[in-house]
Task: structure prediction
Amino acid sequence: MDRAEWEALYRTAVPRVYRALLATLRDAARAEDALHDAFEEGLRRPPARSENVAGWLYRVALRHAHRRPWRFLSLLDARAAVSPADDIGALLDSMEAGRLLALLTERQRAIVIAHYYLGFTHAETAELFGVRPGTVSATLAKALVRMRKGTSVV
Result:
């Protein structure tokens, strides 16, 4: 894949992947930095196949996000990590889906978003995160239970 083809594929995938990263990481600056790092990596070594650029960008961006020194923020409660002045965080929190996603761990959010928002199958999600399909199934089941419990909380 040449540079022009990579850039065209990247531009097509960016809005969707950026929204997925925002929902997963819950931090606009972190999502943007991770996406730029993934793009840079793609310029150096483009993905082997062009049919799943969104998945490749998402996986690589998450890997880069976790290499940054501030990755330990994800260990804090997700709601505490988002400042009240953060417009994106406020918007997500005001939406029911955002409120329920905030109940999940970052790993659970990443897998839920890859499966339900980006539309990956269990096998594709497993490949994306380097885990077994059974791990994806178990993570999704636990996340859905956690989210269902959150719907009864007002």
Notes: Residues 96 and 129 are 26 Å apart (CA to CA).
